[in-house]
Amino acid sequence: MSTGAQRYPDFFKVFLPERHSERMLIPNAFVRLPQLQGRIPEDVILRNASGRVWHVKTRYVGEKLYFDDGWRAFHQENCLGQADFLVFKLERRNEFVVLILQLSTQCQKPLVKMEEEQAATQLVEEPDSSSDDDDEESGEEFSAGFNLQSHHRRACKSKFYLHLEN
């Protein structure tokens, strides 16, 4: 009996920061399943349990397919830690729902709430240098501007993962 809806397969991965921080291998057995016919789009969506989405590119390196560009943001913003268990459920041809299970609790990892900071922009400039003798002699004006913007941050509580922003 067919329901008319195509059932896509799932796969799992264990997150190891030393191997999966930059990209995540998609299992060859998954890619070659008859339902997929070896075709996974280059642009995919990863959706976590809260419904938040990340746009990620897939890329072949040799014979292996990886979640690549965008993967780092996904793992950082979901605070993935050592041995977190990830279940990738292919909902549509280009969309995966990712269930994140924590090794220590063997349960779904609690979602980390984003701390929104004000998106204030400050412009810092050096004072007008027209009265400065050194600048007049060199014939150069000096002006430095810095655009400082705050952004969304996550507070990862994992003892296995530390992210320092530049």
Comma- or semicolon-separated keywords:
DNA binding, 8-stranded mixed β-sheet, B3_DNA-bd, transcription regulation, single chain, globular, At1g16640 B3 domain, Putative B3 domain-containing protein isoform C, 166 residues
Question: Mind explaining what this structure looks like?
Answer:
The chain has 166 residues and is mainly beta. The chain folds into 2 domains: 10-112, Beta Barrel (At1g16640 B3 domain), CATH 2.40.330; 114-153, no CATH class. The chain is built from 4 helices and 12 strands; from the N terminus they run βαβαβββαβββββαββ. It has helices at 17-20, 28-31, 71-77, 133-138; strands spanning 10-14, 24-26, 43-47, 53-61, 64-67, 85-92, 95-102, 107-108, 114-115, 121-125, 145-149, 153-154. Strands 1, 2, 3, 4, 5, 6, 7 and 8 form an 8-stranded mixed beta sheet that branches. A two-stranded antiparallel ribbon has the order 9-12. A two-stranded antiparallel ribbon has the order 10-11. A hairpin with a 5-residue loop joins strand 3 (43-47) and strand 4. The longest helix has 7 residues, at 71-77. It is globular, with a radius of gyration of 23 Å. The protein starts with 9 loop residues before the first strand and ends in a 12-residue tail after the last strand. Residues 115-154 and 158-166 have low confidence and may be disordered.
